[in-house]
Amino acid sequence: PICPSEVSDIEVTLWQKYKDQGLVVWGIGSTGHNSETEETLREFRDAFGLTFPILVDQDGSVMEMYSQDAFEISPYPQDWVIGVDGRVAYVNTAYEADEIQAVVEEELAK
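and the corresponding structure tokens:
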């Protein structure tokens, strides 16, 4: 797994702050396109004290489906915010905490 500072920040500044207002956070680890295993994902989650669910994309199909549609290349990790209407409200390959928080607040206000 990569991006420890990002997931730690998501845990504190998004998940813990907004979960009681309806925010749902999922981490998705792909075991189909790299050396991650379900065990390394659990170890990563536990090492950083993450309490939001980490889903396992065993064959890489979720990563492939979204990566190819949004970007010319398949950067990893990616940040997605799905709005209350079920549509993509935000996507980025660089972690921009202020941008994500603004989108989350806007969506939760709907």
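(Above: one complete record from the training split.) The chain has a mean pLDDT of 86.
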